[in-house]
Automatic annotation (TrEMBL):
This is Transmembrane 4 L6 family member 4. One of its GO terms (cellular component) is membrane. The keyword Transmembrane helix applies. InterPro entries: L6_membrane (IPR008661). It is found in: Membrane. Its main location: membrane. It is a multi-pass membrane protein. The chain crosses the membrane at residues 12-31, 46-69, 90-114, 154-178. The keyword Ubl conjugation does not apply. It holds the Pfam family L6_membrane. Belongs to the L6 tetraspanin family.
């Protein structure tokens, strides 16, 4: 597969992943699907916007660049027919790196959130939500979940959405890493299916 076509496939894959991350982050603002009475009742890591900014907005730009690589007008650059395509592939490496950084940010925020657990109301704190767990102890001891009285199902809600953000972020990092390799190949060798090849045939 040509480097331009491969990059386009990566771009097509990254866009729905970015949308999923944005939606997950938005849902986290509504504990167990309910409107929080006050912002302090929402888990702090939600406000860091790992899914919206990191795996969302910062991932859209690389995805659009990857999608446009195949249609990039590469011919006739400084007297060298292939240098335009090579430069486009090189620039995609920079965007891929930026996307990987954004996804990495989301992964870190998600990991911290999973370790801390959600904020919830406990029998001893019924007026404001707190972090009842320490260092991920609730992950291996399900009986601790009883400490969270409300909102109902908040732990499952918290884990599910942040795990989706974590896994999706890791996938995005992997795809961006593939594009770095693909971009290097395209920069060095050019796009085997580029318009310059067509011009030579003519």
């Amino acid at each position: 597969m040509c480097s331009g076509n491969f990059a386009k496939c990566l771009g097509i894959t990254l866009i729905p992943l970015a949308i999923i991350c944005v939606l997950c982050n938005i849902l986290l603002f509504f504990p167990s699907g309910k409107v929080a009475e006050q912002s302090s009742d929402i888990t702090n890591e939600v406000f860091y916007l790992g899914g919206i900014l990191g795996s969302g907005v910062l991932m859209i730009f690389p995805a659009l660049v990857f999608l446009g690589l195949k249609n990039n007008d590469c011919c006739g650059c400084c007297g060298n027919e292939s240098c335009g395509k090579r430069f486009a592939m090189f620039s995609s490496i920079l965007f891929a790196a930026a996307g990987a950084v954004g996804a990495g940010y989301s992964v870190i925020i998600s990991s911290v959130a999973i370790n801390h657990g959600p904020k919830c109301f406990t029998p001893n704190n019924s007026t404001h939500a707190i972090y009842p767990f320490n260092d991920g102890d609730y992950l291996t001891n399900r009986t601790l979940w009883e400490q969270c009285e409300s909102p109902g199902g908040i732990i499952t809600w918290h884990l599910t959405l942040f795990c989706i953000l974590l896994v999706t972020g890791l996938v995005q990092i992997g795809l961006c890493a593939f594009q770095v390799i693909n971009g290097l190949i395209g920069t060095i060798c050019g796009d085997c299916c580029g318009c310059c090849g067509v011009r030579r045939q003519l």
